[in-house]
């Protein structure tokens, strides 16, 4: 499992630069949303106080609470959107690895998860082919077989008589998703713990 974490960590590290811009844009949008909600709440409060007495103040207080909740929901939605963009960017980054890096990642995945005699299916978009894949140390050591290429997002799939192991980049990111979401949120929104 530690290998998956190292791979996923590297993918996230590659995406951090682009994620910083997304965070700044989202923070700006969130501030504008919060300011608009605050202005609207203040306008509602002033109007309500002028028009009605104590009952109006209670209504205004409820509306302020609803406006605050709406603002928090919009902020949360904006943050979730940014986290989704970062994860999507991480997947795109991993799928676009150069040949040497791609082979290094595949070699690590095969060394950690392949069992002797497994059939290895390579992502059709991979920048490597059967020759490079079969040249990996783990490929020959574990007597793996090349099973062709299929359309999935990066990485490989391993298959034997007992199971299929989906080691596509998307599957690896999804398997680590909850931890990654926390790490991304902590990195992009550190003051909001």
Structure summarized in a few sentences:
It contains 7 helices and 4 strands, in the order αααβααβββαα. The mean pLDDT is 83. It has 193 residues and is of the alpha+beta class.
Keywords:
193 residues; alpha+beta; 4 strands; elongated
Question: Would you mind describing this structure in some detail?
Answer:
With 193 residues, the protein is α+β, with helices and mostly antiparallel strands. Helix content is 70%, strand content 11%. It has seven helices and four strands; from the N terminus they run αααβααβββαα. It has helices at 2-51, 54-95, 99-113, 130-134, 137-141, 169-175, 177-188; strands at residues 119-123, 145-150, 155-159, 164-168. It has a four-stranded mixed β-sheet. α1 runs antiparallel to α2 and α2 (54-95) crosses α7. The chain is elongated. The two termini are 28 Å apart. 24% of the residues are buried.
The beta-strand count equals 4
How widely separated are the two ends?
Answer: 28 Å
Q: Unreliable stretches, pLDDT < 50, 5 or more residues? A: none
Task: Tally the helices.
Answer: 7
Outline the biggest β-sheet.
Answer: 4 strands, mixed
- Write down the secondary-structure element order: HHHEHHEEEHH
Q: What level of helicity do the residues show?
A: over 70%
Mean pLDDT: 83
Strand line-up in the sheet with most strands: 2-1-3-4
Proportion in β-strands: 5-15%
Shape: elongated
Query: Roughly how many Å is the radius of gyration?
Result: 25 Å
Structural class assignment: alpha+beta
């Amino acid at each position: 499992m530690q290998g998956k974490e190292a791979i996923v960590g590297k993918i996230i590290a590659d995406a951090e630069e682009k994620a910083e811009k997304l965070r700044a844009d989202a923070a700006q949008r969130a501030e504008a949303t919060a300011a608009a909600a605050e202005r609207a709440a203040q306008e509602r409060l002033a109007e309500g106080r002028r028009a009605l007495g104590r009952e109006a103040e209670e209504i205004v207080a409820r509306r302020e609470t609803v406006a605050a909740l709406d603002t928090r929901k919009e902020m949360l939605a904006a943050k979730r959107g940014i986290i989704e963009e970062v994860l999507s960017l991480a997947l795109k980054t991993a799928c676009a690895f150069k040949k040497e890096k791609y082979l290094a990642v595949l070699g690590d995945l095969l060394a950690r998860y392949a069992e002797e005699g497994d059939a290895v299916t390579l992502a059709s978009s991979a920048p490597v082919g059967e020759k490079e894949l079969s040249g990996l140390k783990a490929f020959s050591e574990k007597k793996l077989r090349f099973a062709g290429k299929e359309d999935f997002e990066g990485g490989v799939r391993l298959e034997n008589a007992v199971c299929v192991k989906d080691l596509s980049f998307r599957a690896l990111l999804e398997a680590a998703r909850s931890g990654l979401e926390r790490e991304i949120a902590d990195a992009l929104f550190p003051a909001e713990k």
